[in-house]
Amino acid sequence: MGGRHRNARRPRGRDVNGILLLDKPLGISSNQALQRAKAIFQARKAGHTGNLDVQASGLLPVCFGEATKVCQYLLDADKHYVSEFTFGQRTSTGDSEGEVLEQAPADHLEAAVVSAAMAGFSGWIEQLPPMHSAIKRNGQPLYKLAHQGIEVERDLRRVRIDRFELLQFEAPRAIVSIHCSKGTYVRTLAEDLGAALGCGAFVSALRREGAGPFRLDAGFTLEALEARAAGGAEQLDALLLPLDQALAHLPAVTLTEDAAYYLLKGQAVLVPRAPRDGLLRLYDVAGRFLGVGETQADGRVGPRRLFRAQASESQGESMRQRA
């Protein structure tokens, strides 16, 4: 047994640390896009921060190495989408891939009528998750049940719509901008709007423009990454963002040398003028990002998630310029 342990294969790849803003193309899954990016970087460890449907494109932050520890914070982040809704039909999947279940005239719709109906979907609303979703029931994703023709009861979810704006309208299609909380289903939003207008609707195109602090205009396609890879690993690594940019919404505090020493050993420390509650970004006096802390009931700051490694030297200067 000891021999097998010694001969066990180590994970292949480079130790890459940082966040890549990937522009996922249409036609492949988020995991397929992740695996292609991971292969281009020859990275040992990678994860993404929330699925985009195969028929959706846009921003998919990919976390390499130590950055995988911030994936959860990006999963919880607000999202920004631009989507095309087509009125006059309701489909089995809520998008153009599904079977048409109902049809109704929609050529009579006008922009003002659509905008007025959209106003009813602002703030906190309730949504019924679609069967074609990754939510699990008894360990089984709903979309797998849906493919078997099985429909099960789902609980309503409260989500927040911060912005739902009509950008362009020419019956039967509308281009809309959506700023929303995590867990919002754009397909359900289209279906509910179509129901409110009495004609049905489905998502005919979807592109994610933003996630948390990140925007698509700073992203890179797989083709751009492959071209960059020809210049070597340093050329690729220069595209990565530092880990703490995923946490820009958290207050930042700087620890003294002594406080940083004890906090990195797992102890809570006193930090003058630290916020009285909530999560914090922690830095040492040299400006190095240490991880996420949390203010405790007694006012001290304790470690919540610490980071073992910082970005590679090849990324360092690029990251400092972006910070």
Would you write up a description of this structure?
It contains 10 helices and 17 strands. The protein is globular, with a radius of gyration of 23 Å. 24% of the residues lie in helices and 31% in strands. It has 3 domains: 2-77 and 214-237, Pseudouridine synthase, CATH 3.30.2350.10; 79-211, Pseudouridine synthase, CATH 3.30.2350.10; 250-322, Archaeosine Trna-guanine Transglycosylase, Chain: A, domain 4, CATH 2.30.130. Strands 1, 2, 3, 4, 7, 10, 11, 12 and 13 form a 9-stranded mixed sheet that branches. The chain has a 4-stranded mixed sheet with strand order 14-15-16-17, covered by helices on one side. Strands 5-6 form a two-stranded antiparallel ribbon. It has helices at 2-6, 30-41, 71-75, 111-118, 142-147, 186-197, 222-229, 233-237, 257-264, 313-322; strands at 18-24, 46-48, 57-64, 79-87, 89-91, 100-103, 123-127, 136-137, 140-141, 157-170, 173-180, 201-211, 214-215, 252-254, 279-283, 289-295, 301-306. The model is unreliable at 309-323 (pLDDT under 50). The N and C termini lie far apart (48 Å). It is of the alpha+beta class and 323 residues long.
